[in-house]
Amino acid sequence: MKRLFISLYLLLSLSLLGIGWTLDSLWQQHVDDNGVLDAPLLALAQVLAQLPVAERQTYLQAIDTRGAMPLQLLAPEQLALPQQRRLTRGELFTTTTPEGRQLQFVGLGTQVLVAGPIDMDPRAESRGLFTLLFYLALALVILLWVAPLSRDLRILRRATEAFGAAKWDTRIALSSRSQVRPLGNTFNDMARRIGTLIDNQQHLSNAVSHEIRTPLARLKFALALLAQHSPSAGHADKRRQLLEGMGQDVAEMESLLQELLTYASLETQPQTPGSEPIELLVLVRQTVARVQDLGIQAILLHARQEQIRLQCEPALLERALQNLLTNAQRFARTAIRVEVGLSQGMITLAVSNDGPTIPEEERQRLFEPFYRGKVADGEHKGHGLGLAIVKRIMARHRGRVTLDSESGETRFSLIWPQSPEH
């Protein structure tokens, strides 16, 4: 990470330095024109050219340059111009001395006006100093930008290493001004989701091993007894009872595994491409009619609207309603009531029964996998996955499930948006 910081810092600093130096050089070579600076000297040469030769020196001495630019008139023979160059009238020639000073020559016919030597750029040292200060300030600004970024990237790296070491509770806390805060939030969401999945896997593994142990032990015991009861010895009835019990145990394990696979396949995520438009009341009536034959309690349906169309996964929604109805059949005394309604884009599907009141401290735990409430006696015993499946189905549809239990009524409500975009 330190190498990344140094490389990024040097890349930005050297890139800006190189670009600045290149542009400055191009400006001086192609854009910075000295013609404006040469104009006064050329104007003076034109004035001198109009004067007689004898008066030129007097006129030149009368000009007060205050020593900033020495001026003198020389004959062409007194000059050693390169390549024996001869200046025509009004022609300007500029050269540089070995000391880096500038000399300018203007042809006046029989004479040459010489200006200089003068410093080419008297503020060159100051300008160089200010240029250095500019680039140092620029480097400081880059440092102030890169340093927090490097620090946050180190935090991300340490968090990733910790998460890779099975520390599932690892989270990243970054400043609200951090440039990688969205990445940190994404990491936290990922870590939270993976941690939840791993916890669920461990919990399910423990619960399944516990749940399957009882029917498996009964099967092993029945197999041992079955060997002791042969049909020829008049034990046909006993063998039939043992075989029926074994069949029930196999069916119980098969049902448990089916529930477990359904629960594990439901991820807490939005709807998948398997969703389709349906008429909700048709689905509810079909499910109620099918479940009605499994119990003795009457199921009463009340719909606030005549038609409710929505986009959903019908098989999952039917499964959620079926789980609530079969759960209500276990505890209802006389009747079960189903209510369907649509209000402000939200659908409510409620299943109520007149069974025993559920203690408040148990209401949230009922939606945990393999949890059975205190009211679930041997007769009403299930696998403890039905309501957990309902909760996951609602989460898949961007909805929720609620539970209200007062004296004489227990009510489970499914609430989710009519449109998946909500």
From TrEMBL:
Subcellular location: Cell membrane
Keyword ATP-binding: yes
Source organism superkingdom: Bacteria
E.C. code: 2.7.13.3
GO cellular component: a single term: plasma membrane
Main location class: membrane
MF annotations from Gene Ontology: ATP binding; phosphorelay sensor kinase activity
Protein name per Swiss-Prot or TrEMBL: histidine kinase
Organism: Shewanella salipaludis
